C-alpha cells in the first residue's frame, strides 16, 4: 500500500508557509501565495531527495579534488495545471536538472451540482522505469491524481511515484491509496478531516488556482 508522510507533524518553517496560505488576509497577496506554494515545493523536494539513489562523484576544486555524492538519475516532475505550477516551480528549484510533464485537469460541473474530472492537454517525456513526482496543491477526492496517473501510464510505467500536495482530505487520501500503485509515496503538508458535498476541503484554503492566478470564467 502507498506510504503517507504528513510533513507538518514536525514543527518547522513549513508550518509557517501553510499557515500563511490558509490565512484569508494574507491570501489577498497573490505573489505571496504563489511564493509560499513554491517554498512548500522546495521543502518537499528536500524530503524526497533523501529517499533517492546517489552515486560517488569527484569534484575538481581550485585547490584539489573533493569526494561527494550526486543523484544517480533525475526524476520527472509532473504538475496538474494550473494550480500546480507554483508547487512545480519549487520542486524544480531543487531538482533543477529534472525532466518535466504538464497535464490539464478540471472539474466539469453539471446543473445538479455534481461534476466530473476531465483531462485535456498533456506534455511529457517517456516515463518507463523513471521516478515521477506528481504535484497538485489540493488532494480533495483523489480523483484528479488517480486519473492523471493513469493518463501518464500511456508514456510508460514509473518505477516509483511521489505525490506532493499541500493539503489533503482523509477521504481523498484513502481513495488515492486504494487506486495508486504500491510503489507510491505521498508527501502531504497537512491533512484536514472534512470534505464537503461539493468536494471542497474544510478548513482547507479555498481555490488554490484562483488564489494564485485569479478567478476564472465558469461558463
Structure in words:
It is a single chain. Helix 1 (13-22) packs antiparallel against helix 2 (30-49) and helix 2 crosses helix 3 (85-94). Strands 1, 4, 5, 6, 7, 8, 9 and 10 form an eight-stranded mixed beta sheet that branches. A two-stranded antiparallel ribbon has the order 2-3. Strands 11-12 form a two-stranded antiparallel ribbon. Helix 4 (143-152) links the parallel strand 8 (138-139) and strand 9. It has six helices and twelve strands. The N and C termini lie far apart (40 Å). The protein is an alpha/beta fold and 219 residues long.
Structural class: alpha/beta
Largest sheet: 8 strands, mixed
Q: What is the total tally of β strands?
A: 12
Strand content: 25-35%
Number of helices: 6
- Radius of gyration over C-alpha positions, nearest whole angstrom: 18 Å
Q: In the CATH hierarchy, what is the architecture at level 2?
A: 3-Layer(aba) Sandwich
Report the top-level CATH class: Alpha Beta
Gap from first CA to last CA: 40 Å
Uncertain residue ranges: none
Mean pLDDT: 92
Fraction of residues in helix: 25-40%
Q: What's the helix-strand series?
A: EHHEEEHEEEEHEHEEEH
Number of domains as seen in the coordinates: 1
CATH T-level topology: Rossmann fold
Shape: globular
